[in-house]
């Protein structure tokens, strides 16, 4: 089953617009007692505390990645095209960086913990890079992590499939984040970013 081009465009468009609003901050008009208005802007942070399980079954938190750059992507293993394409780009970029890429931990965080167990991720992640870390957890843990990274995800509606069917798709933001050794957000890569573009941008932070 493949996403239609229209659905894919909507998902990517919504995710990109949401990220722009997050990075730019939200302007709020405030009315003073004198009748004058002022504009207050707030820039939302990306990244924060999380508690998940890696593909080896080990409990991890954000502190396990301190001291290293983290290249993080939220998706799911049953994704038919967007996720494999993005993970391939991440892996190729790290290989092109050579030894400099050793300072970066590539991380794949599932938005589909029902199907993406630690055992399933352990088989999946090596296809893209030998150091790729797969993270899963309870539905609540995954939702909390996605919220910290401002990631949207939702089970795609399919009225034709029975309730117990496990062949469903997930709608989700398709954004790769580069986080610094201190856990702070550095930059992002939108869906469709080329390997060369990703490498060039990452080199600027190494």
Ends apart, CA distance between termini: 40 Å
Q: Which stretches of 5+ consecutive residues score pLDDT under 50?
A: 1-18, 20-42
Which structural class do you get from the secondary structure elements? alpha+beta
Spatial order of the strands forming the largest sheet: 4-3-7-6-5-10-11
Structure, described:
The chain is of the alpha+beta class and 206 residues long. 30% of the residues lie in helices and 26% in strands. The protein contains five helices and eleven strands. Helix 2 (82-97) packs across helix 5. It has a single domain, classed as 3-Layer(aba) Sandwich (Glutaredoxin), CATH 3.40.30.10. The strands form three sheets. It has a seven-stranded mixed sheet. The protein starts with a helix and ends with a helix. Strand 3 and strand 4 form a beta hairpin. Mean pLDDT is 83; it is low at 1-18 and 20-42. It has helices spanning 5-24, 82-97, 118-124, 139-148, 195-203; strands spanning 26-31, 37-42, 51-54, 59-61, 69-75, 104-110, 133-136, 153-155, 170-172, 175-179, 185-190. The chain is globular and about 45 Å long.
Which helices and strands, and how do they pair?
Blueprint: H1 5-24, E1 26-31, E2 37-42, E3 51-54, E4 59-61, E5 69-75, H2 82-97, E6 104-110, H3 118-124, E7 133-136, H4 139-148, E8 153-155, E9 170-172, E10 175-179, E11 185-190, H5 195-203
Parallel strand pairs: 5-6, 6-7
Antiparallel strand pairs: 1-2, 3-4, 3-7, 5-10, 8-9, 10-11
Helix pairs in contact: 2-5
